[in-house]
Amino acid sequence: MKETPSAKLVSSANHTASPFGTQFCDHMTLVRFADGRWSEVETLPVGPLPLHPASHVLHYGSSCFEGMKAFRMQNGGVRIFRLDRHVERFQRSAELLCLPLPPADIVEAMIRQLVDLCLDDIPEAPGALYLRPALIGTEENIGAAGAPSAQAMLYVLASPVGDYFSRGGHGLTILIEDQELRSTPGFGQAKAGGNYASALRHVVKARKEHGADQVLFCPNGDVQETGASNFFLINDSQLLTKPLDASFLHGVTRDSVITLARDLNYDVIERDFTVAEVMDWIQTGEAALSGTAAVLSGVGSFVHKGATYKVGDGSTGPNTRKLSDALRALQSGRTEDRFGWLS
Ligand code: COI
Ligand 1, closest atom to CA 65? Predict the structure, then answer.
């Protein structure tokens, strides 16, 4: 297993000893697209990619990716969580970026092949093997600013991970940004590197100036999502989140949390809501972020217009814990896979 030179030990309680996403299994799988065809799947040692400096991705940002996890089951087997949904979203991102559409059977085969090669590197739950397919435009043509890349490379990396937000039971600090957008309207649903890049300066500023973990983007008061996860308001009987539209990422974990919440008899409400409602809700209720990396992480405080507002006692709330436990139990095979999410 390889570790990037910058990787540092952060916490022995964090199921792998290194920060999220800095340790890699020795192998990756890779295919190329050229002349209208995808190549056979290759298995390679993880290492530098041969890329021409004129590659489309390096100039015009033709890149998208996915993030999903394989879990070690309680009974010793290994299963991938909602592989089909992640592959569908990957294809949608490719379509939005005018990249060659990777066939689902090829992507699934690449992922399964890699998981089989990395079996010994999969940590016990709640740790997991994070799987990162990435698709990039590789046509060598700096004149192609207004044309899609006719060539592409698709590769999958595997990384043993623990918690993304390693805060123990402490809630996250979230800065509410009510002026700026996370990404271009209509493009937020793409899992494109460019969307994360466009949110970055706000996240860096929020961390530096307010010690915040993330930024909740709420342009004109409309509560959307954070720089790397979807957003929920939760109380003893309800779960409130924004309905799907093109402006934000259609989280697979978001969908899983909604399904589990309905199963646990929460009233799930998908509607637009405002920052004022968030402030009102947290007087008595909870807030949480969801994502493959974040799972379901509780918010402990919000920073808004320079003031800090605590959520409950500042730790992850009981309903957030209940839903997060239900998700983690299903993912690791401790409860029945009643929705057919593990494969
Ligand atoms: C994920 O949750 O899979 C993401 O892509 C977020 C990233 C910050 C790790």
Answer: 5
